[in-house]
Write a structure and sequence with these properties.
alpha+beta, 3 helices, elongated, two-stranded antiparallel sheet
Amino acid sequence: MGGMKYTFLSGDGTNLSKLDRVLVCENFMNKWPNASLLALGRNISDHSPLILTTINNSFGPSPFRMFNSWFDLEGFDETVRKGLDSICESRFMDEVLATKFKVVKEELKNGVKIKKRKRRKICWKPIIS
């Protein structure tokens, strides 16, 4: 279940409960095996409304992961700016952002490869005496 961690809050605010059960007909899960629940915010009631959705909203693996070591790379800021300034033709903003993240990721990966190659050259210099 997505959304709120708890779906019920007692009147005095001391008791939190997660009520996450929904009754469906016998063949429901056969027809929609990826059905899921989403708990909305508690605005009026002490219960959170639940929405049962049958649409699979999985967008696949995370398009971008950040590593702290990348902040130490030379040219990190410029690389990120270059990726975010790249042009993407789409009317869907999530697709535009995913494409820009992909550009940033590829640029950073190339920067890491170049840095590793430079380190190898320094480490393997023959010592002449």
